[in-house]
Specification:
The chain is about 20% helix and about 40% strand. The chain has a domain of about 90 residues: Outer Surface Protein A, domain 3 (Alpha-Beta Complex), CATH 3.90.930.1. The N and C termini lie far apart (about 90 Å). The strands form 2 sheets. The protein has an 8-stranded antiparallel β-sheet with strand order 1-2-3-4-5-6-9-10, with no helix packed on it. A two-stranded antiparallel ribbon has the order 7-8. The longest helix has 27 residues. By secondary structure, the chain is of the alpha+beta class.
């Protein structure tokens, strides 16, 4: 019976020592330094398989936020053009341009003429790339 009490006492003392060591070590652990600023021309967000699912990048003078689907197809892009005008571009699963919100460039397929849209514009295309609605 005495041996059982000693064994319990030894285990209890060991547990107290282990807990004290862990608490002491946690108090001594140094925090990982956090940088105030991180600078780069491109940041990538990758999934568990290593596929790029998002990117924050600078292309020429244009900052962009690009989102990709699970098949690495570009689906959404938010950018500032060279003149600082913002544009949001949305594409369907086939990569076809479906929505342009903001100062995008509209190109007429038949003539190749290019028209710069105002920042307040909204352009909707069908699955074949034909304009189905626009304002202004």
């Amino acid at each position: 019976m005495r041996r059982g009490k000693w064994a319990v006492l030894v285990v209890a003392v060991c547990l107290v020592v282990i807990v004290a060591a862990v608490v002491y070590a946690a108090g001594k652990a140094k925090a990982v330094p956090v940088q105030e600023v991180v600078r780069a021309k491109r940041f990538e967000l990758v999934d568990a398989e290593g596929r790029v699912r998002g990117a924050l990048e600078l292309v020429g003078v244009e900052p962009r936020l690009v989102l990709y689907d699970e098949k690495s197809r570009q689906r959404a892009k938010l950018l500032l053009g060279p003149d600082g005008s913002p544009t949001l571009v949305l594409r369907d699963e086939k990569g076809n341009l479906r929505v342009i919100l903001g100062a995008g460039v509209l190109e007429t397929i038949r003539t190749g003429a290019r028209e710069k849209r105002p920042e307040s514009s909204l352009l909707l295309n069908d699955s074949e790339g034909k304009v189905i609605w626009q304002a202004p």
